[in-house]
Amino acid sequence: MRRVVCPGSFDPVTNGHLDIIRRAARLHDEVLVVVGANLAKEGLFNVEERLAMMREVTADLPNVGVDQFTGLLVDFCRARGVSAIVKGLRAVSDFEYEMEMAQMNYRLAEVETLFMTANPLYSFLRSSLVKEIAKYGGDVTSLVPELVHGRLLARLAQS
Fold it and tell me: Using an 8 Å Cβ cutoff, are 86 and 5 in contact?
């Protein structure tokens, strides 16, 4: 079985994230979407909320599971028999950082990294940009799944 991970903070999950996940699901037997629990970083949504949203928006994909990880991603991969990490690249600027991470992950655990280029519809899309636009009243309905949009607006209204 070919099992891969799609890691990220997903704070919040965007349509760009979902595009990469769906495309990876068509190519692999199993895709584990793993939400990073970075204890040094406080997100708009906590890890449990991000996991719940990801489970809901991927519920229609039978070969996609959702989990969380702390520490090194390669340790998560080793523990679960994952052969590769799938990463989306939006622009050339993403490549340099992701290449270094890919080489280090291979060096540490011989886990491969597979790069997928972003759909041009989403090549500009970042969670931080979505949050900023929504914070100032901009329309992000086409950038995130509907259920995420509702939760994003509700959370920002609490701030």
Answer: yes
